Automatic annotation (TrEMBL):
One of its GO terms (molecular function) is ATP binding. GO terms for cellular component: endomembrane system; membrane. This is P-type Ca(2+) transporter. SUPFAM superfamilies: Calcium ATPase, transduction domain A (SSF81653), Calcium ATPase, transmembrane domain M (SSF81665). Keywords: ATP-binding, Calcium, Calcium transport, Ion transport, Magnesium, Membrane, Nucleotide-binding, Translocase, Transmembrane, Transmembrane helix, Transport. Residues 64-177 form the P-type ATPase A domain. It is found in: Endomembrane system. It is a multi-pass membrane protein. It comes from Desmodus rotundus (Vampire bat). Residues 2-24 form the Cation-transporting P-type ATPase N-terminal domain. InterPro entries: ATPase_P-typ_cation-transptr_N (IPR004014), ATPase_P-typ_TM_dom_sf (IPR023298), ATPase_P-typ_transduc_dom_A_sf (IPR008250), ATPase_P-type_domA (IPR059000), P_typ_ATPase (IPR001757). The lineage of its organism: Eukaryota, Metazoa, Chordata, Craniata, Vertebrata. Belongs to the cation transport ATPase (P-type) (TC 3.A.3) family. Type IIA subfamily. PANTHER family: CALCIUM-TRANSPORTING ATPASE.
Length: 228
């Protein structure tokens, strides 16, 4: 956790601000140093909290994926790891089972599935093995059960049609890993400008310090002038 927190300080603008705080300390301008340090800590902490919450959400999401499942292969019922499932496998479902993949149902007996983790619907969804015509949203696909949802009542059996990243659950997972709000072209340009200005600032500071050193002036004085 601490490593992730410290990683926030790798931002070039943060490094530039820390350099300014250091100069303020060396020149005994402690109030300026404290103000800069507090501002940096606030920015870094907010960024860390946002990243931490995002990772926690992903962890909670992965808990919805069951480690094992009941699969029928070569006519025999087997207990397999969910990650070993492939499209075409036949999976048996019963009360309390967490569904290990996207499955098209072929046999159903009073099957009710809690899909709240995926669709947000509070009421359990009644499933059928009757083929459906056309396409619809997740709530209307009654002959398919989705990875990460829970069998609340009844039992069923079906053919795996999607696993891992190729499931609806996987799509949600990838969306959560992506940026919550994509950056606009202006924001991207501002980020690039910030990096370029930081590099330019460090170059100018270096040139000023080098010039002063060649002229026999004190390095601290030249560093202070360069940062200002």
């Amino acid at each position: 956790m601490w490593k992730k927190y410290l990683d926030q300080f790798k931002n070039p603008l943060i490094l530039l601000l820390l350099a300014s705080a250091l100069v303020s300390i060396l020149t005994k301008k402690y109030e300026d140093a404290v103000s800069i340090a507090v501002a940096v800590l606030i920015v870094v902490t907010v960024a860390f909290i946002q990243e931490y919450r995002s990772e926690k959400s992903l962890e909670e999401l992965t808990k919805l994926v069951p480690p094992e499942c009941n699969c029928v292969r070569e006519g025999k019922r087997q207990h397999l790891l969910a990650r070993d499932l492939v499209p075409g496998d036949i999976v048996s479902l019963s009360i309390g089972d967490r569904i290990p993949a996207d499955i098209r149902l072929t046999e159903v007996t009073d099957l009710l599935v809690d899909e709240s983790s995926l669709t947000g619907e509070a009421e359990p969804c009644s499933k059928t093995d009757t083929p459906l015509t056309g396409e619809g949203d997740l709530t209307t696909l009654r002959n398919i059960v989705f990875m990460g949802t829970l069998v609340q009542y009844g039992k069923g059996q079906g053919v795996v049609i999607g696993t891992g990243e190729r499931s609806q659950f996987g799509e949600v997972f990838k969306m959560m890993q992506a940026e919550e709000t994509p950056k606009t072209p202006l924001q991207k340009n501002m980020d690039n400008l910030g990096k370029q200005l930081t590099i330019f600032s460090f170059c100018i500071i270096g040139v000023i310090i080098l010039t002063g050193w060649l002229q026999g002036k004190r390095l601290l004085s030249m560093f202070t002038i360069g940062v200002r």
